[in-house]
Amino acid sequence: MTITVAIDCMGGDHGPRVTVPAAIQLVRNHSDVRVILVGLTESIRPFLGDAAVGRIALRHATEVVAMDESPALTLRTKKDSSMRVAINLVKQGDADACVSAGNTGALMAISRFVLKMLPGIDRPAICAVLPTLTGHTHVLDLGANVDCSPGHLLQFGIMGASLVSAIEHRDRPTVGILNIGEEEIKGNDVAKRAAELLWASGLNFIGNIEGDGLYKGEADVIVCDGFVGNVALKASEGLAQLLATFLRQEFRRNLFTKLAAVVAMPVLNKFKKRVDHRQYNGATLLGLKGIVVKSHGSADVLAFTRALQRATEEARSGVLARISERIAQQQPLQETA
Amino acid sequence: MTITVAIDCMGGDHGPRVTVPAAIQLVRNHSDVRVILVGLTESIRPFLGDAAVGRIALRHATEVVAMDESPALTLRTKKDSSMRVAINLVKQGDADACVSAGNTGALMAISRFVLKMLPGIDRPAICAVLPTLTGHTHVLDLGANVDCSPGHLLQFGIMGASLVSAIEHRDRPTVGILNIGEEEIKGNDVAKRAAELLWASGLNFIGNIEGDGLYKGEADVIVCDGFVGNVALKASEGLAQLLATFLRQEFRRNLFTKLAAVVAMPVLNKFKKRVDHRQYNGATLLGLKGIVVKSHGSADVLAFTRALQRATEEARSGVLARISERIAQQQPLQETA
């Protein structure tokens, strides 16, 4: 089966300078993948160079969504933006997935408007992969929904578990809910009621996960509301930057430490590669009738290629059908919730 | 002025084995500090050894609060626990502050019951110090309150700013609110309404801080509800452990990497010392009519000594009077909120 990925080439901090080389990389690495490069063709072409690779199509789009633009305004006015045209290609069945490094809010709004939600899902959720001591975990929502009901968190659990089942061919991935262990009350009201729904859901639910559990491999899927998920993810990014800065400063302190850095460099580079957040780039907008992957805005070619690969894997695995099936099973239960 | 610190010697994972040597360390380092060691004297004495240090008093308490005990039950039944007796010493004016590494929920419940809240403060908040690129920041609440109103977040801002003013002798510390930048909505409803109150408060409020801003030194004080604060803090702990584990694994991979580790060891040790979370041990329960500092349960002697130092500094700085004054100024404004 050939997979076609529509790429919003104009999105992100770097636009075609990153998105086009990443697209070329993707089709070079995967002989069964086609890409449609969407955007201002005059901006895209220079980066195509003489890449003698087939399976690359161009689709002109006259507008570009700015990173700080209002999603609502974008939705109403920019009907021919590269982002919207890429999403339209998925809607029309011309592409199996689309990827954008653009404005998250606009991507959410347009995707939801154009593709619509899967039956039984109220809202899309942003799902990303985080490294853990034992491998990795899928966490959702990471910022699409700031106020979630228990029922939404149940839907996130179902979608996350379906995604992991589909991509990693695992029957019953474990699902946990992010909560806090402090205090008598042990967590907030929404999390407690969501846990009740999850226990009754038939998912392989394992209960509460505290913040540090995000990186311990305690569950294959961890659900949380988008506010807390976003803060946890960004706090982690901030801490990683702090530690990297301090480590660099210590190795640059004097001649001796600089020599030590030279000796330690191969080890430090392996470490760096292992924890390289670019490897984890590409968050899925789950719950839509189509596959939409959001790349980090600052992604470089390596990172954006990873997001493209994620979209390809999801398209190949039939994740949408998996979610729909699972939600249909849940329906009677959910209605009583 | 002599400062007297009451120490719950039985709390934490290690009890007197850690708390007593830390107390000895504190009085050795500070000639104007007295300590009252509270707990089972027969358990405490062996660790006092022949420490020929004055300024150490013992106060027998017959009960011990277990780490997993229900706070409500503890509050009702264990009237002679080391934790409660230590807090009573503050209430009676026999101590200027107390420190415990015990059960957080019980410490909160007993402190609140025995000491009562400062006028104008509804709930206590847990405030801790985090390292940043430029120094450090105070963050509250870290788990005492899972559902906060905008007015509570305003109170946290006032308390945090008063604490920093008192301890660091700074006139107008900057205050930010933890929020998310994703989506059109830019944050949840409570955070938005709290920001309005904070803008109008007369505090040096600087607006929203995203998760990664926690470690960037963007504000001297960052307020958030206890659920999100606790998850962010624990997620950071989890990530730090993950990175430390991966770094260790890379340096232990083979003979060459082990040699590199030997060469890099002095640098790595300096780095480790710089980011050592033990240096930041000791969270303050702010808002009470008395100084109560909570140590991490797993604290070792170095970490517990830091918590004792924090309590000493707060007692010396007159932080409670500072909070009361600031809240009194705010009162008319708050009532309209």
Automatic annotation (TrEMBL), chains A, B:
| Species name | Candidatus Accumulibacter phosphatis
What Enzyme Commission number does this protein have? Answer: 2.3.1.274
Top-level lineage group: Bacteria
Q: Which family does it belong to?
A: Belongs to the PlsX family.
Cited NCBIfam families = plsX
Quaternary data: Homodimer. Probably interacts with PlsY.
Q: In which pathway does it act?
A: Lipid metabolism; phospholipid metabolism
Question: Reaction catalysed by this chain?
Answer: a fatty acyl-[ACP] + phosphate = an acyl phosphate + holo-[ACP]
Q: What is its main location?
A: cytoplasm
Annotated keywords: Acyltransferase, Cytoplasm, Lipid biosynthesis, Lipid metabolism, Phospholipid biosynthesis, Phospholipid metabolism, Transferase
Subcellular location(s) of the protein: Cytoplasm
Q: Which SUPFAM superfamilies match?
A: Isocitrate/Isopropylmalate dehydrogenase-like
UniProt-listed GO biological process terms: fatty acid biosynthetic process; phospholipid biosynthetic process
What cellular component terms from Gene Ontology apply here?
cytoplasm
Q: Which Pfam families match?
A: FA_synthesis
Task: Fetch the InterPro entries from UniProt.
Answer: FA_synthesis, Phospholipid_synth_PlsX-like
- Function of this protein? Catalyzes the reversible formation of acyl-phosphate (acyl-PO(4)) from acyl-[acyl-carrier-protein] (acyl-ACP). This enzyme utilizes acyl-ACP as fatty acyl donor, but not acyl-CoA.
This chain belongs to the protein called Phosphate acyltransferase
> What is a GO molecular function of this protein?
phosphate:acyl-[acyl carrier protein] acyltransferase activity
Which Gene3D superfamilies does the protein's record reference?
A: Isopropylmalate Dehydrogenase
